[in-house]
Design a protein that fits this description.
With 116 residues, this protein is mainly alpha-helical. The protein is built from five helices and two strands.
Amino acid sequence: MARPRKDGLDYFPLDVNFLSDLKIKKIIRAYGAVVMSVLTTVYRDNGYFATYDDDLIFIIADELKLEDSYVKNVIEKLIEVDFLNKEQKEKNNILTSIGIQERYLKACERRVKTTL
């Protein structure tokens, strides 16, 4: 019997110059743990997006021992500074970005090459 197809990733690539970007520096200084939790949730569950709902906010807040309202405010800030795509949040109620999607596709290409 074949193993079920996995949508998410076990790891995701993080560029070595990730922390050099001014936008990222500001976000990480203020909201580092929440940013990393959002990214790991996105890549782990669906691979390139996370459904933006009260459950997601609760899960991240619980994981980090933070208030739900704080996590929601941080996510809204990530959308405001275009770390996460505002249009996708409003249109499809998901958290994603072009960068997230590109890294996911690259990781999937590698996964296919190594399984052949």
